[in-house]
Amino acid sequence: MAPQQKQWTVLSLINWTKQFFEKKEIDSPRLQAEVILAHVLGWERIRLYTRFDYVVPTEKLDEFKRFILERSEHKPTQYILGRCEFFSLEFRVTQAVLIPRPETEHLVEALIDRAREIVDARILDLGTGSGCIAVSAAKSLPTAEFWAVDLSEEALTVAGENARRHGVDGRIHFVRGDLFEPVAGHTFDFIASNPPYVSESEWDDLPPEVRDFEPRGALAGGADGLDAYRLIVRQAEEFLLPGGRLLLELPAGKAADVRGIAAETSSLSVEATIRDYREVERVLVFAVPAQGPAGP
Known about the structure:
Elements: H1 10-23, H2 29-41, H3 45-48, H4 58-72, H5 77-81, E1 83-86, E2 89-92, H6 104-115, E3 122-126, H7 132-140, E4 145-150, H8 153-165, E5 172-176, E6 188-193, H9 200-203, H10 208-211, H11 227-239, E7 240-249, H12 255-265, E8 269-275, E9 281-287
Parallel strand pairs: 3-4, 3-6, 4-5, 6-7
Antiparallel strand pairs: 1-2, 7-9, 8-9
Helix pairs in contact: 1-2, 2-4, 6-7, 11-12
């Protein structure tokens, strides 16, 4: 750890931690140092730049040292601090839930854009995790009603806390179970999901922050990473109202495969393909024919 000295200022602490993280091969080492220090001090990160000469109190320094030791073992900063920003909202996260990614915001935006057109929309969030999709959408859709499903009781606890934090818990039903099983008999205007999509061959090459800390069940998608997509696409029409839509986040490079799954196993049609900021096909929006799913 840091050498002993009488005083550690904000700047000296950031500089030392940046070098420490570089040796530990931590990505964005200065940014990580600043985020952790700002959290410990209870400041916005920008304030660090106006208080470089501020001497960090001993009790705060001890807390900071504990956090950077955890980060040096590649534990994600979001888990260390217990929070993550998503869709301009702060979410509580634990190792029971996947850390929300910026890419998933494209899914939320697509859902909100379409659900605004429907009064009292019924929306199903499959594999809710932290609740980031359902909670973020509920903030923008004040008349919509949500069902948020997850197999993990611990994840549902976190999601419920996030719903209460943002005042939307009265419109989200959190239910435990595997995919559609706990909502049998219900139908929805929209189904949204960010399914597990890491293939077996990709697992060992994941960054340690992901492989060693995030919940495997929220990541591992079978031999080719698409097991959950097959299950969701095959069953979705049974749970969608006529004219309903299924929105799926995609792994990079797998859009054509998911389109193929839909073409082979359902009557869903592709309404839209949404690209992320890197021009990766990130979200597929499927539509149910207006007359409803085909009969047997």
